[in-house]
Amino acid sequence: MAYSDKVVDHFNNPRNMGSFKKDDADVGTGMVGAPECGDVMKLQIKVQNDTIVDAKFKTFGCGSAIASSSLATEWLKGKTIEEAQKIKNTDIVQELNLPPVKIHCSVLAEDAIKAALADYQKKTDGQPTGTK
Amino acid sequence: MGYTPCRLLLMDNQQSPPHPDTRRQLQMARSMCWHCQSEVTGEYFCDRCVKVQPVSKETDYFTCLGFPRRLLLDPQKLEAKFYELSRTFHPDFYQTKSADEQTISLSNAAVLNTAYRTLRDSIQRAEYLLALETGSVKDIRTSPPADLFEEILDLQDTLEEYRASERDSDQGHRLRATLQTEQEALERRKEGMEAQLRQLFADWDKLQDAGEATSLARVERDRILKEMRDLLSNRTYVNNIVNDLAATIA
Asked: How far A62 CA lies from chain B's nearest CA (Å)?
């Protein structure tokens, strides 16, 4: 099975690889894994005034998993929390042309986004966000 | 042809009658002969017309190989049964039979191969049992082991550093030594997990052998499945990074 050009591009030049301090108040961290294949994904967002100003990821897994999380961080930047909630794994599948056997990689990326958003929202704990 | 595969099975049945559960499940899976429409009570052949019967898609791999749903199976018995059934369904013995029978024997042989490949490996066997017992593995949602994930991702960084370094430099040697230590530690951890798994396998078999339907048994069943799910997942994560480490520093 051949990877699409977009996957190869994200794999060779991953965007936004790295991490933020997960204890920072303006950072949300999503840490997820796929027990079926053993892939691990960490995705973090930095939020100001309800908007995601930066995003980073670290992924241990196959090319598709790396590409999915790399793409996710690109998409997250500049989005509001509400907009970010709407990112679906199918969007990632479409953009990267993932074959059926690799769809779970995009599911993992969506889970990571959801987990990062949830973590951030738990930190702000219902207070109006972005006052910092 | 003088060969009647049926006899082979009958002889075997006399030696070790199939587990009652197995027999019931088989009857539920397919109760009528495709050829003569009489009720099928034999395992793989119609008693009346001696035609080979298709192994149903719903028949699980344990039933298919004539074993109860246990996790500590004797590999030799499993292999012996596999060889025996392989002979039973071998397409060579169906060359002179009808096209239907040839198709059935071929598809049975294929199912049998998959069943054996799955059950002969204790980890795959446990994964398979979990899927059977919980409908879908995803039904047991486990909380991701965050500490383990952090560790794996940190190791990943060190691995990247090593890949980018000059192998013969001081830094290369230092990183390699670090990775080797990590690999050994992780391998020990994996062995520890496998020992815990074997204990859970024994717990599961014991519970099944007791066959009680009490609420206490139910609680114990759920505990075993949940712990098994966690351990199998974590083992997969550890296994992946160990393989990656081994391949990189080899």
From this structure: 11
> Where do the domains of chain A lie?
5-123
DSSP string covering B58-93, please? Answer: TS-HHHHTT--S-SS--HHHHHHHHHHHHHHH-GGG
Instruction: State the Cα–Cα distance between residues B10 and B12, nearest whole angstrom.
Output: 5
**CATH class belonging to B5-120:** mainly alpha
pLDDT above 70 covers a percentage of chain A that reads 94
The CATH number assigned to the domain with range A5-123 reads 3.90.1010.10
Write the pLDDT tens digit of every residue in B176-228.
Answer: 999 999 999 999 999 999 999 999 999 999 999 998 889 999 899 999 999 99
Of A31, A32, A35, the CB nearest to B236: A35
- Give CA–CA dist B159/B172, Å, rounded: 11
Longest dimension (CA), chain A: 48
Q: b/e map of B154-170 (b: 16 or more CB within 10 Å)?
A: ebbeebeebeebeeeee
**What angle separates helix A89-96 from helix A5-12, to the nearest 10 degrees?**
100
Q: Is A37 on the interface with B (CB under 8 A)?
A: yes
B248 C-beta neighbours (distance < 10 Å), count? 15
Which residues 50-69 in chain A show a CB within 8 A of chain B? 58, 60
Task: Give domain limits for chain B.
Answer: 5-120, 137-249
pTM given for the model: 0.77
Closest alpha carbon to A66 in A41, A45, A84: A41
Element (DSSP H or E) covering residue B146? helix B146-164
Q: Which of A37, A62, A103, A118 is labelled catalytic?
A: A37
Q: Is the ipTM of this complex over 0.95?
A: no
